[in-house]
Amino acid sequence: MNNKILGILELENRPISHFGALCAPDTHQFPIKRLTVEGANVARLIAGDRSLKDAYISGARKLESEGVSAITTNCGFSSLHQAEVAAAVLLPVVLSSLALVPLVAKSLPRGRKVGILTYDSTKLAEHHLDAAGWSSKEIDVAIGGIEGSLTWQRLADACPDAPPELITADVLAGVKSLLRAEPKVGALVLECAGFTLAAQAVRRETGFLVADFVTLAKTLIEVSPPREVVPIRVGL
Q1: Can you list the domains of the chain with their CATH numbers?
Q2: pLDDT at 156 over 70
Q3: Nearest to 170 by CA among 189, 188, 144
Q4: pTM of the full predicted structure?
Q5: Residue 140 belongs to what H/E stretch?
Q6: Distance CA 94, CA 59 (A)
Q7: Sign of dihedral through CA atoms 119, 87, 210, 20?
Q8: Is residue 51 predicted with pLDDT exceeding 90?
């Protein structure tokens, strides 16, 4: 598996690099190749700027040419560009941890909800879910966020200064708030790539299945074919 490389399309905001973060090489047991998407930043992604589509496609094609085995991003809101980017390359592409929600939902008994903790719950909308391959009409979800917290403020900076302790504290606070409001939540998906640092703490505190961008990264590498296999487009 270690000969496979995960490509990560990154925001211009400098990624969190602490161990456990998606974009920290030491987090993974496989190599990663990072590429900054021109013009993509927290403000534009959260606002749903669809004009970034071409920059994401260009970045994906460049990563493909450099030999990566699969492609993701470091922002769950980039799900808006999933269909176009996946169609532009011959590699497995999953741009958002939101794509994990259907799998997590299958793990729950009837009557329980999937909780989604996002960077900003006031901005995460149905079209982000649709682009990730599902809808809230099909899957019962509850959405909470960390908006207004110090982590929320710092992750929007060009060079975020957010230590693991701060991120973990704010994520746990967001989870607890979500669970108070939605007691039927029985598992969690963390939308923001910055939240991966807190995933283990959330699992310990809640006893829940918790999926995040690192979960997605491991899955993509596990299921992606070796690059020496020539991909074939169905129907061609």
Answers
A1: 6-96+216-223 (3.40.50.1860), 97-212 (3.40.50.1860)
A2: yes
A3: 144
A4: 0.93
A5: none
A6: 14
A7: negative
A8: yes
